[in-house]
Design a protein that fits this description.
Organism: Nonomuraea rosea
Largest sheet: 8 strands, parallel
Catalytic activity: (2E)-4-hydroxy-3-methylbut-2-enyl diphosphate + oxidized [flavodoxin] + H2O + 2 H(+) = 2-C-methyl-D-erythritol 2,4-cyclic diphosphate + reduced [flavodoxin]
Pathway: Isoprenoid biosynthesis; isopentenyl diphosphate biosynthesis via DXP pathway; isopentenyl diphosphate from 1-deoxy-D-xylulose 5-phosphate: step 5/6
InterPro entries: Dihydropteroate_synth-like_sf (IPR011005), IspG_bac (IPR016425), IspG_bac-typ (IPR004588), IspG_C (IPR058579), IspG_TIM (IPR058578), NO2/SO3_Rdtase_4Fe4S_sf (IPR045854)
Cofactor: [4Fe-4S] cluster
Radius of gyration: 24 Å
């Protein structure tokens, strides 16, 4: 069964056709959404052995990022990958714009603790170099790789032999000129059509180990493009708002787009693209999945926004709590409240909480006030009770 149509009748273009004249495959039936609310799609495996990460099917939505170091600088790149891994990144992508970068891939792929995807633009020969280097997957951008369509047969053969998945990554800024001419701009239909066209070329050579992304900087355009893909194919989808910008703008745009799509069951792996250190992308991606119930939260801080009733520096206290519990290894919901109106009640809903004011804090554990301490002792007291909760195994059951 072809993943581009789940068995539905479609007219697929031959490799001799132009993408500008190819139709988007017919949508699948609503049964393509699983009983768990996730879109039904095929499952691929990125990487091998203990480092393998499943994407699609019933696998959890994974978080990935991309290094910002020159890939040719092996030590710097591996150091950044280690930092990303420690932050919770599951898949990492590295840019391969030069031969020096391609030459560095074997060492990086071998030493990285998480699967490494080679990001290829312009030169198709680097696709083969990445496969030979042992990369876990290869991302190709058909819109800017020279004579890409003519290389599909060779790429499919090499990737199949090495069991390396291919990500077809379509970007609004590098869309095939023929599709730009047809649609006038990078519309959702143009983005989806480009990806489906390239997928059909791989299918003609019997290769289906694909995942797809169709990225745009505009949230609504990006969402619409993925919705088209979700109905037209059964490949796993990599979600991303490209060029989303710096925080908080980039986080807001990515959250808005991901929430719409993931709530529909659309999306199998995500990257929050930020003009910021890549560790921040990972933190944001994890937080998005946690807030949507797609990942078990490690730490959730419930804190009030503040008002004229505050009798404590709430923002400073919240920052102190966040810093103190940043590396806490157990799921925990901590409430930080500075208001006598809602504070006690809200704090009682958390595993652990404080309602602070007038230089002191009431400490709550599982809804019960356990002690009142001076403001200077709030953090150490919270940590003490958090450790007791962890030791007893009574952390937040739904966190």
């Amino acid at each position: 069964m072809s993943p581009t149509n789940l068995g539905m009748p479609t007219t697929r273009p031959s490799s001799a056709s132009s993408p500008a004249s190819s139709p988007v495959p017919s949508p699948v039936s609503p049964a393509a959404v699983t009983a768990l609310g996730r879109r039904r799609c095929q499952r691929i495996t990125v990487g091998h052995g203990e480092r393998a990460v499943p994407v699609g099917g019933d696998a959890p939505v994974s978080v990935q990022s991309m290094t910002t170091t020159p890939t040719a600088d092996i030590d710097a790149t591996l150091q950044q990958i280690a930092e990303l891994t420690a932050a919770g990144c599951q898949i990492v992508r590295v840019a391969v714009p030069s031969q020096d970068d391609a030459d560095a891939l074997p060492a990086i792929a071998a030493k990285s603790a998480i699967p490494v995807i080679a990001d290829i633009h312009f030169q198709p020969r680097y696709v083969f170099a990445a496969i030979d280097a042992g990369c876990a997957a290869v991302r190709v951008n058909p819109g800017n790789i020279k004579k890409f369509d003519d290389k599909v047969a060779q790429i499919a053969k090499a990737a199949a032999a090495a069991e390396v998945p291919i990500r077809i990554g379509v970007n609004a800024g590098s869309l095939d000129q023929r599709l730009l001419a047809k649609h006038g701009r990078a519309t959702p239909q143009a983005l989806a059509e480009s990806a489906l066209w390239e997928a059909s070329l791989f299918e003609e050579h019997g290769f289906h180990d694909l995942k797809i992304s169709v990225k745009h900087h505009d949230v609504l355009t990006m969402v619409a493009a993925y919705e088209i893909l979700a109905e037209a194919c059964a490949y796993p989808l990599h979600l991303g708002v490209t060029e989303a910008g710096p925080p908080p703008q980039g986080v807001i745009k990515s959250t808005a787009a991901f929430a719409i799509l993931l709530r529909q069951g659309i999306g199998d792996t995500i990257r929050v693209s930020l003009s910021a250190p890549p560790v921040e992308e990972v933190k944001a991606g994890i937080a998005i999945l946690e807030s949507l119930g797609l990942r078990q939260p490690r730490l959730e801080i419930v804190s009030c926004p503040g008002c004229g009733r505050l009798q404590i520096d709430l923002y400073r206290l919240t920052a102190q709590v966040e810093a103190a519990f940043e590396d806490f290894p157990h799921p925990l919901r901590v409430a930080v409240m500075g208001c006598v109106v809602n504070g006690p009640g809200e704090a009682r809903e958390a595993d652990l909480g404080v309602s602070a004011g007038n230089g002191k804090g009431q400490i709550f554990v599982k809804g019960e006030v356990v002690e009142t301490v001076p403001e200077s002792q709030i953090i150490e007291t919270l940590i003490k009770h958090a450790m007791s909760l962890a030791e007893s195994g009574t952390g937040s059951p739904d966190a």
